[in-house]
Amino acid sequence: MTPSRLRLGLFAALVAGPALAQAPAPAQAPAVPGWAVGRPEGSTLAPHAPRLTVTPLDQVPVSQIRLPPGFRAEVYAHGMPGARMMAEGPNGTIFAGTRAIGRVYAVSRNPDGTTRTRIIAQGLAQPNGLVMIGTSLYVIAVNRVLRYDNIEANLDNVPAPVDLTAAFGLPTEQDHAGNHHWKFASLGPDGRIYTNVGVNCNVCQTDRDRFALLVSFNPDGSDRRIEARGIRNSVGMAHHPVTRELWATNNARDWAGNDWPQDTLHRIRRSGEDHGFPFCSAGAADPQHNNGRQCSEFVQPAALLGPHVASLGMRFYTGTMFPEQYRNQIFIARRGSWNRERLTGYDVVVAHLDPQGNVMRIEEFMTGLRDDANQRFHDRPVDVHVMRDGSLLVAGEQMGAIYRITYSR
Amino acid sequence: MAAALIAAATAPAARAQDAARGAELAAHRCVNCHGENGRSGMADIPSLAGQPAGYITVQMILFREGIRQVPAMLAFAEGVPDRDIEDIAAWFASLPPGPPEDRRPRDAALFAAGQAIAGPRNCGVCHLPGYSGREQMPRLAAQREEYLARAMREYRDGQRVGVDSQMNGAVFGLSDAELDALAHYLSQRD
């Protein structure tokens, strides 16, 4: 417990004292929820409501999307409330995880080019982490790890998954105290599963061997390895197609002002590097949790991605459909802010790298879903996926749609 | 200002909800327990009158999907289409909120104790200072006291989660006595 939390907790116990003399003061009670630590007096900012009902096709805001010249967006699939992180099977089925609604969707292509959507799993807690290894789909739902073998051949009659939960031994929702327990998952070039273990609070002194990590495992859950430490909550990662280095997006802490800290992009050159959270965020000292540490002792972020934008799913563009300038550059979905008075994000950006892997600039790519004049949004991009034909899928969580972006000269 | 910004930030509803249709649907499945006027007269059953439509919609979907498990709601939520849920939610949201007929008299000491917890716990930030709720966050004012106490125990004990885990954090570490005081305070607000 931090000193500030302790003081507030005592204050709450004292003011409640007279009527509750019989109730012992709880030892571990935070005065405010972990995610709200640092909230200024009077703020009414709160997470936006999700939409968990089906959005009809004519309400999917594809016509709002703006792209650079030559690019075009279409609706690839819709009617999937809460659709988030995507993985593709060898036969081209797109799987999409969710958070609150607890479903995993499968989108397959009909012979006429249209798509068909099925629910292949439901009732799971935050099944956000998907990874495809061969013909098996791995679903990570908080600490549960489920392997659906030969899934594409069984979309209409999904067999019971193999339960690998015990082997992975990830922290439970209770271990996280309900904070940042959902997963992103990615298959590394070494055949290992890479995932995040988010921090168990908004910002706090935490067990840095257990939370705010990137970790990897053998696909059977053995040989856990810490890939990066001090990364608050990464919900997007991928390996560079040439250098094989791991890159990851990170969601920075809340309630430290409208413009600080920015979300970040991280380059992990060696397993086990320390990226500094909670002592430092976005390369600068945390106002409450720095503990006298020098930020220069930690790996600096590869790029700043904007304050409170919620940078999530990212992929390197490995296709050939888009112009050459996009080859091996990073597409990043920015879900959009809630912890900021004016909206930021709600778009897809590209991080352009130089040949040494330094980020040269962050460029807007898919915009139009954020309405600045009216301070509203049309959808929330949460993940990107490069299809084999080089088109780019973008998952829109708020409207439960997947958009497909193509390019033609 | 910020509240207005947030209220405006949500993407538009995909279709106009039909509260009249919702009333028809609710007459056959909801009002026996939740009350003809949406104010529950049954212990442990929450009032839904004046609840934000977004809250009712989200909770019904969590029931339907098996994420929130309440045995009494199973039969009523199973397989209910989105449209029915949205219309039922629109109808309950349109009803004037108010206390149940059997609300007990105010206990001044308990009320004060609850009030003293609600401030530091920031209840009014999300549920708004009058506890009227907004979007996915429910109205608490004049809700049935024993329902509020039970709901908060379930959040505290990890037996219930919402669309996010904000409530689990908000009541973390509170004793039964503190939750009872909070429930009394909120149930007495109008």
Could you characterize what this model shows?
The complex is a heterodimer of chains A (409) and B (190). Chain A has 409 residues and is mainly beta. Helices cover 4% and strands 34% of the residues of chain A. Chain A has 2 helices and 29 strands. Chain A has a 5-stranded mixed sheet, with no helix packed on it. By secondary structure, chain B is an all-alpha fold. Chain B has 2 domains: 18-94, Cytochrome Bc1 Complex, Chain D, domain 2 (Orthogonal Bundle), CATH 1.10.760; 108-188, Cytochrome c-like domain (Cytochrome Bc1 Complex, Chain D, domain 2), CATH 1.10.760.10. Chain B is built from 11 helices and no strands. Chain B has helices at 2-9, 19-29, 31-34, 53-64, 71-77, 82-94, 108-118, 123-127, 145-156, 166-170, 176-188. In chain B, helix 2 crosses helix 6 and helix 4 packs antiparallel against helix 6 (82-94). At the A-B interface, helix 1 and strand 26 of A face helix 1, helix 4, helix 6, helix 7 and helix 10 of B. Chain A: InterPro entries: 6-blade_b-propeller_TolB-like, Glc/Sorbosone_DH, Quinoprot_gluc/sorb_DH_b-prop. Chain A: This is PQQ-dependent sugar dehydrogenase.
Most residues in contact, chain pair and counts: A-B, 67 and 56 residues
When the domains of chain A are counted, the total is 2
Whole-number tally of structural domains of chain B: 2
Instruction: Report how far apart the termini of chain A are.
Output: 58 Å
CATH architecture of the largest domain in chain A: 6 Propeller
Described by its quaternary structure, the protein is: heterodimer
Q: For the report, how would you describe the main beta sheet of chain B? A: none
Strand content of chain B: under 5%
What structural class do helix, strand and pairing data of chain B support?
A: mainly alpha
Structural class of chain A: mainly beta
> What do we call the CATH homologous superfamily of the largest domain in chain A?
TolB, C-terminal domain
At the first level of CATH, the class of the largest domain in chain A is: Mainly Beta
Q: Count of helices of chain B?
A: 11
Mean pLDDT of chain B: 90
Low-confidence stretches of chain A: 1-29
Mean pLDDT of chain A: 91
